[in-house]
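Project outcomes to date are best conveyed with an example. Our students and postdoctoral researchers have been running inverse folding experiments weekly, and each run begins with a structure described purely in tokens. The record below, which covers 147 residues, was selected by the lab manager from last quarter's runs and is presented without edits.
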């Protein structure tokens, strides 16, 4: 009985890490590639800069929504795990959007705000990752203790 519970908890953790964590880092990397790939051709031309911003921001937002939906659709994990995974994806999307503003925006107040968003959202992601990993560790320890 203990082994079966332990295996179930381990399966939940693996599904969570693979389906959500890996998927999120992949979408974030794709967004970062868009930022780098659209960097120089729009310099100096406001219309081209706007088009590049909209293209990158739209793609990053679509990737964020994809990662959030993947978190909600994960077959295992309780409400806390699903909430954490979806919110991590949402916060990473805010970071990607702020980085897009830093790449294309010119307003100093908005650029400062974007920098603050990056710092705050990264801190909140660390808190959520820590909380969800502690819950997973707690569930694993509890499953190992079951008779």
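After processing, the design step wrote out the following sequence:
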């Amino acid at each position: 009985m203990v082994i079966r519970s332990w295996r179930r908890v381990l399966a939940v953790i693996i599904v969570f890490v693979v389906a959500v964590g890996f998927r999120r880092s992949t979408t974030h990397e794709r967004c970062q590639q868009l930022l780098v790939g659209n960097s120089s051709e729009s310099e100096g031309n406001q219309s081209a800069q706007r088009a590049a911003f909209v293209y990158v921001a739209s793609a990053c937002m679509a990737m964020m929504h994809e990662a959030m939906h993947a978190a909600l659709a994960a077959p295992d994990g309780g409400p806390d795990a699903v909430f954490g995974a979806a919110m991590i994806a949402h916060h990473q999307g805010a970071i990607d959007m702020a980085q897009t503003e830093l790449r294309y925006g010119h307003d100093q107040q908005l650029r400062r705000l974007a920098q603050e968003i990056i710092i705050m959202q990264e801190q909140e992601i660390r808190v959520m990752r820590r909380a969800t990993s502690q819950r997973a560790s707690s569930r694993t320890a509890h499953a190992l203790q079951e008779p």
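Residues 108-145 form the longest helix (38 residues). Residues 13-24, 140-144 have pLDDT under 50 and may be disordered. The training component of this project remains on track.
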